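Request: How about a record?
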Amino acid sequence: MKTLSITEARANLSAVLERAKNGEDIGILSGNKIVQLKPVDVVPWEKSYLYQEYGVAPEEWQRFRKRMETRRQRGKYVTFKGKFDPKHFK
């Protein structure tokens, strides 16, 4: 397996991804772990979790996403940025 640092991978990301797509074993060293890059097949909607578990059609999912984005833009929902301030919710 070809192992790269995050800096090396970032500097050559397009080429690294192409090599991984072509089947080369490539890993990126992150802390004390190696994260392997590999291509995955996109499953058809009928095999998706939303469809199989809940019977959600693609059109329903798109309407939901659009509705949630509108609510976020209006400030009704806040995206968690990683710093929790309990005073914000009083």
Notes: The chain has two domains: 2-37, 45-79. The two ends are 51 Å apart (CA to CA).
